[in-house]
């Protein structure tokens, strides 16, 4: 029996197997048996059993009396060190919770790194972000995602970003980058009927996130979300008095040397937002992004 039934390629398949087991245990709401993990990840049971034995020796997993596995105590120190190493502003969680309270919807901060958006903080209990699911989730950097950071980045990164979409869409997206660079914020819309679809699809991605083996499917669903919620309103449309459907807003956050590193998002996911409400959203997210940008390492 093959150790990896997925047929995927990797620079280090054995490492991927270990990481996938740890990630799956972290994502599940309850401990799991060795067989559950093997079947969920598409690995042979003997391979998973050997990996779990090694992880147990190091304290990375623990085996319960009922033979189910859970994360082990040795990971607590690793997790704490990982949190300390994350390049995020001090007091970030409190700041985005306060932002969410002011705008009445979810808020999140993503780190743009290695061609991906990694969610490093998000609100709990008050709405959600259409493109964000949980802290730690990493999504491919695909236009229009990450536009608020890309708009302030160098031309090479902008071109790689534009190359992720068909040629016929690139001119419009390039214009969008210029608009964000000028205004400091992107306001993204969707057809009113699509707002509910975005919400449902986000829940699908959340469900899939419980299974690391579903990464490919999760990325495809996320791409659908991005396409559905991905048209940027121009300045004239935003200035109009009519109500507009709003999926989310994004703004760049800069590090201590002025490099755009993070994207701050809020997700109203509302089919009708008035002119005054839009102004409120824009002011709040841009002010919060500026406050976060003054952080010094």
Automatic annotation (TrEMBL):
What organism does the UniProt record list as the source? Rhodococcus daqingensis
Give every IclR-ED domain span: 74-297
Supply the InterPro entries for this chain. ArsR-like_HTH, GAF-like_dom_sf, HTH_CRP, HTH_MetabolicPath_Reg, Tscrpt_reg_IclR_C, Tscrpt_reg_IclR_N, WH-like_DNA-bd_sf, WH_DNA-bd_sf
Report the CDD domains cross-referenced here.
HTH_ARSR
Q: Which Gene3D superfamilies match?
A: 3.30.450.40, Winged helix-like DNA-binding domain superfamily/Winged helix DNA-binding domain (1.10.10.10)
Record key words, sorted: DNA-binding, Transcription, Transcription regulation
Family matches, as SMART domains:
HTH_CRP (SM00419), HTH_ICLR (SM00346)
Q: How is this protein named in the record?
A: Helix-turn-helix domain-containing protein
Q: Locate the HTH iclR-type domain: which residues?
A: 12-73
Pfam families recorded for this chain? HTH_IclR
């Amino acid at each position: 029996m093959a150790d990896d039934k997925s047929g995927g390629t990797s620079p280090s398949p054995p490492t991927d197997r270990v990481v996938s087991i740890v990630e799956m245990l972290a994502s599940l709401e309850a401990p799991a048996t060795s067989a559950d993990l093997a079947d969920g990840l598409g690995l042979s049971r003997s391979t998973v059993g050997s990996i779990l034995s090694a992880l147990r020796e190091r304290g990375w997993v623990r085996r319960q009396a009922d033979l189910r596995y859970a994360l082990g105590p040795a990971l607590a120190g690793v997790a704490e060190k990982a949190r300390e190493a994350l390049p995020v502003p001090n007091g970030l969680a409190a700041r985005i919770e306060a932002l969410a309270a002011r705008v009445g919807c979810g808020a999140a901060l993503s780190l743009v790194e290695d061609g991906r958006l990694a969610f490093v903080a998000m609100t709990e209990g008050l709405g959600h972000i259409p493109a964000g699911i949980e802290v730690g989730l990493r999504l491919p950097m695909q236009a229009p995602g990450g536009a608020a950071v890309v708009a302030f980045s160098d031309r090479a990164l902008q071109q790689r970003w534009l190359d992720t979409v068909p040629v016929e869409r690139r001119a419009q997206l390039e214009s969008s980058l210029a608009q964000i660079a000028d205004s400091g914020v992107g306001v993204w819309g969707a057809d009113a009927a699509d707002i509910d679809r975005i919400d449902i699809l986000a829940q699908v991605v959340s469900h899939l996130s419980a299974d690391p083996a579903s990464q490919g499917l999760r990325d495809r669903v996320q791409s659908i979300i991005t396409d559905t919620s991905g048209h940027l309103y121009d300045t004239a449309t935003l200035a109009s008095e009519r109500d507009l459907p709003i999926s989310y807003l994004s703004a760049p956050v800069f590090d201590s040397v002025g490099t755009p590193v993070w994207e701050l998002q809020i997700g109203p996911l509302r089919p009708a937002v008035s002119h005054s409400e839009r102004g409120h959203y824009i002011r709040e997210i841009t002010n919060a992004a500026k406050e976060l940008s003054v952080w010094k390492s």
